[in-house]
Amino acid sequence: MAKIVCFFYTYLFYLNAKLSFASEVSLSSSPESINVLPDGCQNLLQSFANDTARFTLCVVSNARPITVCEKCVNEYNQVFNRYKEIQKLHNNDSEIDCRAVLTNIDRLQVVYASYNYVLDMWQKASCELCLNGTVFNDKAKEVMARSDDLDKCISKHMNDTELLNSTICADCKQYYTNLTNYYDTYKNDKTFCMDVVDLINTTQSDWSLKFKCHVPNYDSEWILLVISFIVLLIPFLFYFINWLVSQERSNVLISQNRWHQRFTNNAASTSGYVVISS
Questions:
Q1: In terms of CB atoms within 10 Å, which of 30, 55, 143, 160 comes out highest?
Q2: Nearest-angstrom CA–CA distance, 191 and 130
Q3: Distance CA 168, CA 160 (A)
Q4: What is the DSSP string of 94-140?
Q5: Gap between the Cα atoms of 114 and 8, Å rounded
Q6: Regarding predicted confidence, which is higher, 190 or 202?
Q7: 124: how many CB neighbours lie within 10 A of its CB?
Q8: What is the per-residue pLDDT across 147-196, written as a single tens digit (0 to 9) for each?
Q9: How far apart are CA 117 and CA 181, in angstroms?
Q10: Looking at the predicted structure, is the pLDDT value of residue 215 above 70?
Q11: Are the C-beta atoms of residues 262 and 269 closer than 8 Å to each other?
């Protein structure tokens, strides 16, 4: 992804230089030529290229940690507004329709593709979920405030020599729990943008891996214990039921043998024949 963004950023600078060269050529060319844009169209196209380049630079600069929604909202609005100007543009003093020329400047449709790139990047970051105009909404601000409290606690332990004997896990657990619990309350409602999601993921990773802390999830542990107990109990139940069934079959066979023997003896005693043993 970083290579694609860098390639696109390089291409925008190439387009910027190309447009600058075209602007210089237009001063010595005939204004009636269809290949030369009027000054108003040329200047607007130049501004759009610069705005798109600034947005791309902002996105790359704030990719780690992700703070695109917070830091690049002005650059995004500038590109969005400039594209709206292009869509509304029509120069009545020229036979050339500037809007049509700018949005179809070549087969690559650079203006249209550049705008779609900016729009797609903004939508992938889900920035609208966190923003109220150009600033964070209340829920995003609350996450950031709780994250700042946790960072202050961790920084105090890392910098204050008097607290070297105490542990981050014990003293900062309350701030970590407050942050993660608040996020878990609203995360299923698609409330947060990528800035917040990346912040929570990074915080949880550092808490577990970097600081070797762990907040046990008792509900999950109980479920795991119950499942493990059932799995271990199944073989014993199987052999116990099998033993009961085998016992019942043995009793039936024994009863049948005794009953058959008694019936045979009674039949022999009531018959008229005398059995003489030799």
A1: 55
A2: 7
A3: 12
A4: SSS-HHHHHHTSSTT-HHHHHHHHHHHHHHHTTGGGTEETTEE-HHH
A5: 9
A6: 202
A7: 10
A8: 999 999 998 888 765 554 458 899 999 999 999 999 999 988 889 999 99
A9: 35
A10: no
A11: no
pLDDT band at 67 (very low <50, low <70, confident <90, very high): very high
End-to-end CA distance of the chain: 106
The tokens for 213 are 């802390």
Assigned token pair, 63: 């990719």
Q: What is the dihedral of CA 202, 207, 210, 216, to 10 degrees?
A: -130
Which residue's entry shows tokens 């700018």?
102
pLDDT for the residue 55: 98
Let me know: does 193 contact 235? Beta carbons within 8 Å: no
Do 183 and 150 form a contact (C-beta atoms < 8 A)? no
- b/e sequence 137-171, b meaning 16+ C-beta within 10 Å: bebbebbbebbeebeebbeebeeeeeeeeeebeee
Percent of the chain with pLDDT over 90: 40
